[in-house]
């Protein structure tokens, strides 16, 4: 239980910037159910930005922060400039490294993004999934960022 409480009050690894949202279900009382689009930059690899879309529960419970969001999420990550990988990133273990976490219920559920490095193909793989203390979800999505030489536009 102590670990649950520590997880509840620990800050996310990076904060996400909300880009926009669309309503999916009208609620007479409280906010509508939504799909929210957020962006965050990889905290360890400069020039990689990920866009995450996720369900956000509305209604009275949602407005008070007491609702549990569904495990649905989609992810797209892009290279926005030159990427240089440190040896630390290249030598990560196979279980990946968490780069983003968002609480999706009051205490027990989080949505997470974990980064993997595929040295054979020289690519970064980002996995989004939702977990729960007792019962996680198999719903997940991935996005890949091939590490290619960055070509900037010629000076005018």
Quote the distance from N terminus to C terminus.
Answer: 60 Å
Classify the helix fraction into a percent range.
10-25%
Computed Rg: 17 Å
- The low-pLDDT segments are 1-12
Round the mean pLDDT to the nearest integer and report it.
82
- Sheet with most strands: 4 strands, antiparallel
Major sheet: arrangement of strands: 1-2-3-4
Proportion of strand residues: 35-45%
SS-based class: mainly beta
Number of strands: 8
Element order: H for helix, E for strand: HEEEHEHEEEE
* Individual helix count: 3
Shape: globular
Query: Domains counted in the coordinates: how many?
Result: 1
Give a description of the structure:
- The chain has helices spanning 2-9, 59-64, 87-90; strands at residues 17-25, 33-41, 48-56, 73-79, 97-103, 109-118, 123-132, 140-146.
- The protein has 156 residues and is mainly β.
- The protein has one domain (2-146).
- The strands form two sheets. A four-stranded antiparallel beta sheet has the order 1-2-3-4, with no helix packed on it.
- It starts with a helix and ends in a 10-residue tail after the last strand.
Keywords for this entry:
single chain; 156 residues; mainly beta; four-stranded antiparallel beta sheet; 3 helices; Uncharacterised_CreA
Offer a quick outline of the entry.
The protein has three helices and eight strands; from the N terminus they run H-E-E-E-H-E-H-E-E-E-E. With 156 residues, it is mainly beta.
SSE order and pairing:
Blueprint: H1 2-9, E1 17-25, E2 33-41, E3 48-56, H2 59-64, E4 73-79, H3 87-90, E5 97-103, E6 109-118, E7 123-132, E8 140-146
Antiparallel strand pairs: 1-2, 2-3, 3-4, 5-6, 6-7, 7-8
